[in-house]
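Notes, Module 5: Reading structure tokens.

Key idea: the token line is not a picture. It is a compressed description, and you learn to read it the same way you learned to read a sequence, by spotting repeated patterns. We will look at two proteins. The first is printed below with its tokens.
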Amino acid sequence: MTTPSTASDDPHEIQDAGSLLGLHTVAAQILVFAYVVTFAVVSWTDSPPGGFWYEFAAWIVVSIGAVALILVPGDPLPLSATLGLTVVGPVAINLNFVRTPLPLEGHLPLWTLGAATAIYAYMCVRGRTAWAWIGMLTMLASCMVWTAAGGEGAFYGLSISVINLAPLLMATFFAWTIRPAARSIFELRRQRTLRVAAEAAGAAILEERDARLAELDELARPLLEQLAQPHPLTPDVRLRAKLIEARLRDSLRAPALDTPRIAEAARQARTRGVDVVLLDDHGMDAASPAVCAEIFRAVAGALDRADAGTLTVRILPPHRDTLVTVLHSTPDDTTRLEYGLTGKALAPRV
């Protein structure tokens, strides 16, 4: 009997706020692709004279950051990835500053501000809010230093960049709300999955018990009714009782060999006077159906051939080179057969 596996057993399943928002889906990959293409067009079309390679480098930096947001696993983000994403904004904006002239003609030349702000917003969702704010404030400080050095004053740098605080502030409050909710949702789902698995296991146990009771009723009830009658026991009744007791013992001591074909072959062998012993030390619990079929055929064949003595079939413990041994002892001879992990007979040991 096996217990159904739960969803939480899957090592590839990421259960965090990012999963809840679909950051690990194909739709998220399409969105990141659109992000990369959009800023590639912006950096190309708005590149100042002599600044193409700086703009291109800034685009590479923000593109790597966006891809890392959906590919790097873990909740919260691992520290190494967090540090890398934190410096995306300052690095990209300072590359942007190298050839961008002052005063600005609109805000499009500083496209890296918006690109990095999007990354920082999703860092909040991935559980790194403080680091996102560090990156954002560093970007704002960089803008103030740049405009002050260019003769426009630090306040001008603040005025052109402070608007990006609004989306990050909203992302911060959103993360404070959604992350606890995500934990609660996944915890409830985990509990539900465990409950369903426990119910399924309980149902399987009850089903197995009912099957055993039905088998016992079919095998033993007629004999018990006959034994309850005030008549002496005949040799035939005694033999039937012996065979039923052996059949029930086999089902308990060797459940892996409890098949109709082997049970019938064992009954016939015992009828011929063979002492049959079936043992299961669980070495076949993980065997494939093909290997089990080979073993079942071999065991049934050995039982069919036996006509005297003692025949012991044992499934060995796991992690051994030999899977099953068949020992047939008679007053004149002893034969031992071994079957390997493939279900085939092994060469006799010298």
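Here is the second protein, with the sequence above and the tokens below, as before.
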Amino acid sequence: MTLRGWFYPAEGASGPAPAIVMAHGFSAVKEMYLDRFAEVFARAGLNALVFDNRNFGASDGEPRQEIDPVAQIRDYRHAITWAGDLPEVDPLRIGVWGSSYSGAHVLVVAAIDRRVKAVVSQVPLVSGSANVRALVRADLIAGLRALFDTDRAARLRGEAPAMVPVVTEELFGSAALPTPDSWTWFTETAKLRAPAWRNEVTLRSVEMFTEYEPITHIPLISPTPLLLMPAREDHLTPAHLAIDAFEQAREPKKLVILPGGHFDAYVDGFEIASRAARDWFVEHLAG
């Protein structure tokens, strides 16, 4: 299987320079504004490697539209290996950047892979179980779990995995990301940059979402420097969950609370988010 992406060489580098390894969040592809962050990093003298997650975008992988957080974590580590072998990259100065679902992944990667020398986690998921309780009414959770069980039985019979939309226009629609701003961002803002994006994932992806607990890795990130950036008005991955998780991290660490909602860091709040990430990486990798 081949993962595909873009490499942005560090501007002004006279030899091997640090590198930032980057991927997008839940179902998103690299064209959805990751180029803007990579360009900021490159102008600051940092190489940037941006890749599509397996089963999405330009990358290989089956079944298409399935999001396995464990596999995506492993792919971050494969991408670190690949980047570290490039002549432009100093393998001893590699950082990881992630946002939303990949913001969760980089917390885990930084905790288990000591090749990572700095990490930036933007508007991250920190607990799948806590997040599903924040997004789904308590009286509907049992029905959601029944759907998971029905899908599991169907797959045992050899049937194809069930699919669900990533977003829906209906406020209480059965979507993986059931918030109004998720619908607006994916279908109106980001899809202009990535018209081939598909509004569906396997139901099993949602089940794996509910089982995912990156918070358990947060105390293990130290001594790798951690920058955590929740958004003040985030309804998709609520800021209070990330702030509570930040308290479990050990030094060195920094908390920057971004203005706006979950998706504002890509557009309206881009300057604040990208500048904070750039400065963190320059401070801890460029010296």
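Summary for the second protein:
- Strands lie at 5-8, 17-22, 47-51, 89-99, 116-122, 163-164, 201-202, 226-229, 253-255.
- The mean pLDDT is 96.
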